[in-house]
Amino acid sequence: MANVTLLTGGSSFERNVALAGAGLVAAALRTRGHRVTVVDTASGPIRREDEERRLDPALGVVAPSAEEIGEIRKRELGFGLLGLDQVRDADLLFLVLHGRQGEGGHVQSMLEQANLKFVGSDSVGSLLAMDKEVAKRLMTHAGVPTPEWRMWPASRAEIEALGLPLIVKPSREGSSVGATVLREHAGLEAAIDLALLSDDEVLLERFVDGREFTVGVLGDQALTVGEIVPRHEIFDYECKYTPGMSEEIFPAHIDAALTETLRALALRTHRTLKLRDFSRVDFRVDRQGRPWCLEANTLPGMTATSLLPQSAAAAGIPFDELCDRMCRMALARTGGAAARQRVARGAS
């Protein structure tokens, strides 16, 4: 069994979702015999007696305000994380982080420089997947169909060529934060302004009218295909993290041919973006039955309503086993604190 430190919280708009997931992951890993410590990357270690309050699963329902995020970012630890004993001496760091600050490659790069082991994709894969424009270019090159897009600013002709409906969203944010579906061009300016609250790059994408699906990837295996039926027009933050705001069907009620197509495309996307260990790949299927890949998530949600755990459970992998497998894949890689200690003992 391993000494595992969970890195969670952070300073993205998905901070509360990360904290909610961390409580569940900590409990799951402890049932598998791991020794677990929790560290908020914005405020430092969380004492065991404070976990129930600070990692409350109900936290994920409401996103923090822009003002709250601004204050959190002023005190974020950054490279100060590497000075914490809980981080430096861990056998493994389990990242329960979301959004650009948590899964966009920044934390991963810092841990790589310190030769620390962590679960999930490395800094390169994290960066490629988080930047939606870069990811879509790579997917297109690899033959993964993805809806047409333009980056803002774009000419009127370019925007009109995308057609309506149109979805406007931050290029480097998760959980549909700041996303708007437009059915007329009159609301474009307001939609751009909303997206710019989360990122300085905004993506305009043809909205695929149809059904929404998701596929978990674990190791080199595509898991169960699930269908998402949100109460809102898109699977937005509220629908993702509020119980009862969406219906999630695992396995999806679709034919075998579409099931295998989605699973194959999920694996191709995972490999194309150079992802590692696990991911969740999201699709929409249009009225003609054609699949379109929206994005890949390198650190999918780990809350009670999250999709990767549901995809795994439908494939016969319960939550505690899923978390344990994530740890074992990372521990199997060379390097990290334990490896440095072995080297040091051998040299003495």
What does this entry look like structurally?
39% of the residues lie in helices and 22% in strands. It is α+β, with helices and mostly antiparallel strands and 348 residues long. The strands form 3 sheets. The protein has a 5-stranded antiparallel beta sheet. The protein has a 4-stranded mixed beta sheet with strand order 3-2-1-4. Strands 5-8-6-7 form a 4-stranded antiparallel beta sheet. Helix 1 crosses helix 14 (319-331). The longest helix is centred in the N-terminal third of the chain and has 17 residues, at 15-31. It is globular, with a radius of gyration of 20 Å. The protein starts with a strand and ends with a helix.
What is the makeup of the main sheet? 5 strands, antiparallel
* Order of neighbouring strands in the sheet with most strands: 11-10-9-12-13
End-to-end distance:
26 Å
Question: What general form does the structure show?
Answer: globular
Alpha carbon gyration radius: 20 Å
Q: Summarize the amount of helix as a percent range.
A: 25-40%
| Overall pLDDT level | 91
Which structural category fits the helices and strands? alpha+beta
Quaternary structure annotation = single chain
Q: From N to C, what is the helix and strand string?
A: EHEEHHHEHHHHEHEEHEEEHEHEEHHH
Q: Count all strands and give the number.
A: 13
Proportion of residues in extended strands: 15-25%
